[in-house]
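Example record for the data management plan.
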Amino acid sequence: MKAAKKATVKTPAAKAPAAKAPIAKKAAAKKTTAKKAAPAKKAPATKAAVKKATVKKATAAKTTAKKAAAEKPAVGQAQPVGKTESPAALVRRARRINRELAEVYPYAHPELDFENPFQLLVATVLSAQTTDLRVNQTTPTLFAKYPTPEDLAAANPEEVEEILRPCGFFRAKTRSVIGLSKGLVEEFGGEVPGRLEDLVKLPGVGRKTAFVVLGNAFGRPGITVDTHFQRLVRRWRWTAEADPDKIEAAVGALFPKSDWTDLSHHVIWHGRRICHARKPACGACPIAPLCPAYGEGETDPEKAKKLLKYEKGGFPGQRLKPPQAYLDAGGRPAPPLGAVSGT
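Corresponding structural encoding:
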């Protein structure tokens, strides 16, 4: 009996291993997690890998440097003007361009020969689709034969056409100058009116022509938006407008009204002499650092100088009888019709 009882009694030593099993499992799990969390040691880089990484880094640095050099303007080149230019910055840049041009062309003046408002009005109408030089070579004969609005209003159209033939579109221009002369006689007593609203009522007279007359014959400020003016103000990003009236309004807002007439002369003179339509002489341009369009033309200084026209290139100007200030500055009068001008 006693022997059998001893066999069935469980000793404390037999229970111990069962109680410690969960603790052992937890310890093992923690050890495994710690191993996973610990960063794996990188194998030492080989010489080939180090060389490859160095070459890659150097190539990237060289590419970045080339890109930066390409974006950086060269000496004398324009600083890029982006779409984010503020209105205030645009005003400052535009006015600085005008100041620079005033120094380059201190003698800028209307390039049509005239002695009175009537002659300027007729000459401006005739200047459409031709050069002021050609008009100046033609008008002496016209005004010698028809010196007043009354004379031109009563003129024989065929005779006027023959005189105006060198200006191109001579039939249409004949109708315009005879028509405006009749308008002056019938509506304004043979006198050229000094108001915009009256001038634009005359045949062949638009806002551009009216502002030329108002600014240069009456001393009343106006912006002359001709083809040169339109081209340059868009190149300079003063405006993106294409309509002359909208260009006039946009540019006029950048300057005080008192600057408008001289501004027109500066811009037009620069367009005729340096900032040409087909091949601007960028390398000879005094306002290159302010121009977003720098590089559209010839940038080599020596080659650019050969593109200059009129007095900047040593050629005669457009007026047969230019102002004394122009002559004092080294300008040369234009030759009469039929003579070799050198331009």
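Summary line stored alongside the record: The CA atoms of residues 2 and 8 lie 10 Å apart.
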